[in-house]
Amino acid sequence: MIKIVYFSDARIPSEMANSVSIINLCNAFTQLGVDINLVKPWRFRNRNINSDDIYKIYGIKNKFNIVNTPYLDLSIFEKIFPNLILRPANYFTKRVWQRYIADFIVNKFSPDVIHMRNNIPFALNHLTKKNKFVLLEFYDEPSKFYLDIYKRSIVGNKKLILTAITSNLADRISELFQIDRKIIEISPSGVDKSRFSKTALDSNKVRKTIMYIGSLHSNRGIDNFILASKNVNEHDFIIIGGTKEDSKKLKAKFNLNNKSNLSFISHQTHSQISNYYDNADILILPMTSNQTHTKLYASPNKLFEYMASGKPIIASDLPSINEVVSHNHSALLFKPDDSIDLTEKIYQLVNNKKLSEKLSLNSFDLVDNYTWETKAKNMLDLIKDRKS
After folding, report:
1. CATH number of this structure's domain 193-368
2. What do you get for the CA distance between the two ends of the chain, in Å?
3. Contacts of residue 146, Cβ cutoff 8 Å, sequence gap at least 6
4. Which of 20, 60, 268, 279 is 20 to 30 A off residue 53, Cα-Cα?
């Protein structure tokens, strides 16, 4: 049995997509018979949450070992100290903690491979010096501040397996570190397809439910979703995500009242969210093009969840999205940051039953290539090939 330690500095549980990805990938490894241990920091915000709570929040049935390690969580001092003080303190804390936990992992678990994301560079460098096998996943372009550390750890490292979530990101990593693009495998995010029930589209439903599910960060394009809802008064729009305070700010910004056709539902846990998909007729992914990560490097879990639900999708026409779905085949793609074009695409779907059915069927068939189990299997193949 292969033994893997997933080393993460993420706050788990949290409302962030990275925590969903980490937990589900560990779950997929467990299903495949891997001896997986998740090593993560103990954080003050989650001090009363144990492993069973985490399994419940994320709907995990195959339990794996979760190890909390001591961590000085400086984020609790954000409102007290300025960045001028916190930034160097945070740098020092991360450097010490990452090296300490790297040694802890090696000594306690003796893993075949240590899996990590590209946000713990000091641990990567420390493990490189110890000549340990590491699988490094790039989810974004690394910070310029840490480029030299990454370069010293990556270039010429024969015991390093590199993956990136999109081909554009792989190209960028190859360019940054002047390494062969062929050694970087593409490993997108995923979905647990078993959590979703593909319900038939109700073509007789007059007033459609058009839904967005996800965070309310500025790069998600929520403004365009709201503007489109104002243009399409005869149908209902729902936003699921964010906090009540987030919803309050958006309602004030767009002068929304109780008579609006747009409703807000606060962030739901991962185990709860699949129930909402059954009520949707159209799912919208309105990501903006004004951030490089969103435009080129993002592999949104939400897109794969949308596909697994079997509902028609309208998404921003971005290179990162085009790697997964194609216009008029598995989704309708609209001009990013263009609420008028989004409005037109909504009417196009509402008025075309055959198109809705085609998009739903094609995206649902495609999602088998993007499950967490598929991702885990591909990673295991990479590990076996490298270690053989």
Report:
1. 3.40.50.2000
2. 15
3. 121
4. 279
In whole angstroms, what separates CA 220 from the centre of its chain?
13
- Whole-number Å distance between alpha carbons of 203 and 350: 9
- Which residues lie below 8 Å from residue 109, measured CB to CB, with a gap of 6+? 3, 5, 37
Is it true that domain 3-190+371-387 has CATH number 3.40.50.2000?
yes
Separation of CA 112 from chain center: 26
- The full DSSP string for 66-82 is EEEE----GGGGTTTS-
All structural domains of the chain with their residue ranges = 3-190+371-387, 193-368
Q: CA-to-CA distance for 324 and 320, rounded, in angstroms?
A: 8
Three-state SS across 245-294?
A: HHHHHHHHHCCCCCCCCEEEECCCCHHHHHHHHCCCCEEEECCCCCCHHH
pLDDT digits (tens, 9 = 90+) for 12-54: 998 888 999 999 999 999 999 999 999 999 887 777 889 999 9
Encoded amino acid at 193, one letter: K
- pLDDT at residue 75 in the model: 64
Amino acid at 106: V
Distance separating alpha carbons of residues 262 and 321, to the nearest angstrom = 26
Report yes or no: 186 and 170 within 8 Å, Cβ to Cβ. Answer: yes
Confidence of residue 78 (pLDDT cuts 50, 70, 90): low
* pLDDT digit string, tens, across residues 288-312: 999 999 999 999 999 999 999 999 9
Distance CA 326, CA 341 (A): 17
Q: Give the integer Cα–Cα distance in Å for 38 and 53.
A: 15
